[in-house]
Amino acid sequence: MPTSSSPAPQPTGGRQARWQPHNDRRRERIVTALIELIEETPMGVEVPMQQITERSGLSKSVVYRQFSGRDELDRRTRTAIGDRFTDDIDIALDISEGSIRVILRRTIAAVVDWIDSHPRLYDFLRHGPALGDPGDVDAVSSLKDRIAGRTRLLVSGLAGVVGVVDEAAADTMTFAIVSMTEATVSRWARDRDRAMGRDELVAELAGYAWSVLDGVARAHRLTLDPDEPLLAALARLSSVDTAP
């Protein structure tokens, strides 16, 4: 029992809570170091822990205490890389500005530029899971799910006004567009003898994505104008849909 002059012992959980922000900053520092090193290391070569500790400026013992093992560090790093990717996609997917065609091109251009500018990071995503993923799912697969969720703001809005109100149908349509785009851009980025330039690729993929949306609209006897501002199109089609 503590005496009246002795401070009461603090619960372990309280001490952990106080140290949590400090440890979070250390983990972020280590993950950032690994991302930088992946960008500088030949494709497919694992970055040694020694290099990670040196780049992060932390001692080896500190680095090892922040993670349960190399697997957790790699998973957290893949999650951080995916966050950077989706942050760029979020900016491009601003549905408040631009027509359907402009938004599609802007978003696909963001995908093309990111994958082409960070081939080593994208390759790293392909070779293991992110945080919270099953061990047999690579981070690119979960990343496509995340991007599809963000893209659904565009697709489900249109799907609702053209009659595809079923969430599963809207999700399937979105994922089909995202998967087509990712697979095509990845193949193009790996090709040393590119038969198609960046702008041409963006235009082609935007055209394919538009064809999917347009096909759904026509199946429901509605006509979409790809050059009409998206918000105006949604307002117009919604008023038509609700008109007596």
From TrEMBL:
Keyword S-adenosyl-L-methionine: no
Listed transmembrane segments: none
Keywords: DNA-binding, Transcription, Transcription regulation
Keyword Transcription: yes
Region (Disordered): 1-23
The entry's DNA-binding region: 48-67
Occurrences of domain HTH tetR-type (ranges): 24-85
Name assigned to this protein: TetR/AcrR family transcriptional regulator
